[in-house]
Amino acid sequence: AGLDLQEESDLTPQPGAPKPAQEDNEVSRTLKGQRQLVNIFRTMRAAPQPVIALIHGPATGAGFGLALAADVRLVTPQAKMNVAMYKMGTTGGDMSISYFLPRLVGLSVASELMFTGRFIMGERAVRTNLASELFQTQEEMEAAGQKLAAEMLEGEVNGLRLTKECIQLSVDAPSFENAVALEDRQQVLMVVAGDWKRRIGNFSSSHKSKL
Prior knowledge:
Elements: H1 26-46, E1 52-55, E2 58-60, H2 62-69, E3 72-75, E4 80-82, H3 84-87, H4 97-105, H5 107-116, E5 120-121, H6 122-127, E6 133-134, H7 138-152, H8 157-171, H9 176-193, H10 196-210
Parallel strand pairs: 1-3, 2-4, 3-6
Antiparallel strand pairs: 4-5
C-alpha cells in the first residue's frame, strides 16, 4: 500500500493549467494536496473506534503512515514497510511518520529508518514494538484480527472510546499528574453514567463460579 505515483493527483500541477495567481502558486497547491492526504490519518486518530492494521506485503510511504496511525498492528513475515519518500528525493518526515514512528520504536530505530528508507520486515517489526504479533500466514493473521476486534467489543462502547482517547492523550501528557487526572475523570464518568454496576456484578459472578 502507498500513494499511487502513476495517477495524477492534486500534489502535481496539471500540464497546460492556467498560470496561478500569486496566492495560488505551485507551493500553495502542493501544500493543499499534502494536507488533504494527511487528513486521512487525522480522521483515523479521531475515530472513536480502535483501528487494527493487518499488514501482509508492502506498506510503503503513505501505506506505512496508514499502518502507523492504526492503534494495533499485526503482521506476517511478508510484511515489508519503509519510509519511501526519502528514497524518492523528499524528506523522511511525511504522512505523520515523524510523529508515530519514534513513539513506537524509539528514536534510534526511527532515525535509522527515516534517514535511509530501509525496509523493516515483519519479524523485526515485532522485535522493535512496531507490531504486536507475527503470524505465519495471512489467514492466521486475519483470524487473529477478528478475534481481537471481538474482544474489544466485549467492553462498554463508551469505555472503549474513552480508553482510546486516554491512550492518545496520555502518550503526550506533560506529567504523571495530567495523565491520572484524565483517568480519574473518565473513570468517574463511566461509573456514574455507564453500565458499570451490571458489568461488575457479572464479572464477580463469573469468577465465583470458577472457584
